[in-house]
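Lecture notes, unit on protein representations.

Consider one protein chain, 277 amino acids long.
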Amino acid sequence: MLVYALAALPDGDVREWLVGDSLRFQLASGERSQWWLGWADSLSVQLERSGEVTLRQRVRLVRRMVHCLVLASLGGRDTLEVFLAPLGAIPPGYAGVRLINAVADTTLRYELRIGCPNSPQRGSPLAFLQKSPPMLVPAGQELALSVLEYGARLRSLGTWRLLPAGGRLYTVVLYGTPTALRVGIDEGSAAAGRLSAPQPLGEVRSAVRVVNLSRWELRVRKLPEGIGVGAALQPMSVGGVRGVPGLHRRGWGYAGDPAERRGADSPCGGIGAAAPL
């Protein structure tokens, strides 16, 4: 049984942890402890802020599990949630990716997608202190991760790149407040340290080919940049392959179902225009 602690607090204060009778350490928001072995069926956890006890809780341990103790706060009250992951559950050649929502707000929900915001939905949006099931991804291959926020309107928080190592479980942790939201990545190592800062996804280039099944000769452009994709394309013909940027550098917010819109505001999407010559 492996155990570690992770602080995902909306404030910048430090909490002192007393685990069992002898293990004592401090964590600021966005920091995690090293792993330790749990020998008993349960352990006691006490949290202090400036000498004042903010929480006492007993945590039950499950055999052959990694226990992630996530400290969050809502309405000024500390709360501790335990997230489990089976030991050795990730097959060779793969890594796991999951999301934990520790944003101090009960009206918002968040969703992790592999790829762009308009990629297929893998699960339900998460409420406060919920986690998504691990999604298996090939190890050693760079991939894109996107997080969507469900509130009064649907918006994308961003798209980042990740190069996962085999056998690891990567956890995207959302914490802070809606107006000061933070994103960190727990890379699943046994060492203590800060959550990793996500790496923004740069420009994505896509290979595009235009098929003209109309009766007119067409000119095709990608908007809003006006990049030509096909010029003087004859009726009932197939154009050549052209590389075009797929990432628009403007704002990433959008409304509506991202699966139904691939607009100029979508990180990996684009719209085009075709006009007869």
